């Protein structure tokens, strides 16, 4: 009888919840809007739930859902990867469904987005993802990826954004707002210091609190405080001895305490390792696979936050209020998103989404070297040889969880063919191919092989050019008026045996930055027979350059530029678009030059010491005056810009930086004004410069614009290593204004 009454009450309360949403939809209830949270309704619902029902809400119920409470009308939450496109459909299982209508817009990857330095694109990018996720019935989109690029070898750098926390945070804030405005929760990942894939499930990152707060946390803090993000993903790694997904300091003290995060901490897939810690230290939903003994008959009750948690609560070891807090957060997220609120229909594969993919690709591609070859003048060329495997390769698939079933993907060769015009003949040769000498491993199979990193290194050495393809390409290059070489890294390892270290992908790091599959030799040979060779490289990082760059007249870095990437590359090569991308990471010659390798450790062994501390990327290269090929923030244009009239004014706790930029060349183009801050006489070690503001301006030839950038107090602070708090040290601060970290054009001083 009692049970029956409860049920009636439950249905009543659930219906209140829904009626409120329904009336929002009709606009009849002026007091709430879609996605508005009612804490009172949440409390009433929690009061009606059994412990089992509560626990059902905080762990997986299939590969990409967490449980609901059917009795109370609470649905499952539906998740999807990923950061640059809504992933293939998996249904409830662990494999992509075949012949499923899940084609989606494939945007340029995260590092391309960051290379635009255009905040408007952050929002538009998120808006595309939000609409497509909503149309596919998703409530949480697992992006953006905002880990700091600590080493160029990290296999997932392409999913992330930058070596700089301010640039990462600035782009991610727009992304999160654009996504969540559609009623789909963003999920910033992976919190925190998840900077390598090697040993990713166990590696213990040894890092100072100062480095956490100055380098590895700020982008997460920005999406919490400046974008109001609704969920965060805990990482696989440990930090200073404790798994990040249930980390007392990271989750309880910093994220939910200091930053006031009221959303949901979702585990990475199988990153929960301990029930008690997960209950106490801030994990709100446990997702993943590791505990499934039989993928075809999954028993989700065995998850850490299922039966083991129930036992702990029932025995009194952990108070039920910890579960209530998690449930409250989950219900809050449901009310905010399409799970329990109507945000209107989504849309997918529409032209405006493809336009965003194109716009981001155009501004995210970076021109790094140009001895005058580019843009190519089509009226003067009869034959162009396009050479390289990547000119015809598709990149949306493969690479791990970020893969997308792209509606289409324009390859560089197609883009060039489409734009070359009738009077230019385009000839193509593959030049090299992904190549593995499997015979070296004929007698090593299964686990023994995958454990044998040393053997894999041998494969690195064995990898070489395909002589026949190379000769064919050289012959073509010799008779062409110009050559466009398209190469670099490839994305993904699926179906490629023994490929460790040769590609960008989840769960793998690269072994070094050497150009793979004999491309270095190929570029050298092509340069020898044709001095009009433009090199276009793909990839989530740089490559070693000393053996080919000096003789190469033009170099364009295209990252993985999305479904419209081939078109954008061609437009830049032919001058229909003036490049304006800027590097979000320093391009040094070898991975060994990076502080994570030369001072700290990478990938470590069990533990990895971040001895370089806050000196990541240009903070290290610039402070210690190390040679690099292309500095942070660098990128060329087909026009020229002049910076003038720097004015710096202090207004209370704000500093206004004003400068004029003039396009002094013959073409319209865009320039990024970068503002770096430097304390002139700090009492603690501080970098020579730190990015604290930027703005991108588009200018017609001869036009000028005044750029105003506001710096708040926080732009001048450092995290005190002993007192463990943000500190504003009085003194003189130099404001450095330039268009890369190594090209500071104007400086001024402000006193605090
Ligand atoms: C990855 C996450 C991803 C999740 C779900 C994990 O292995 O690290 O980034 O969102 O899988 O596919």
Relative strand content = 15-25%
The ligands found in this model are: beta-D-glucopyranose
- Rounded to an integer in angstroms, the radius of gyration calculated over CA atoms is 26 Å
Structural class: alpha/beta
CATH architecture of the largest domain: Alpha-Beta Barrel
User: What's the CATH topology name of the largest domain?
Assistant: TIM Barrel
Q: Helix tally?
A: 21
Q: What's the arrangement of strands in the largest beta sheet?
A: 1-2-3-4-5-7-10
Find the CATH superfamily of the largest domain: Glycoside hydrolase, family 3, N-terminal domain
Kindly provide the name of the CATH class of the largest domain: Alpha Beta
Give the overall shape: globular
Low-confidence stretches: 1-31, 440-457
Q: What level of helicity do the residues show?
A: 25-40%
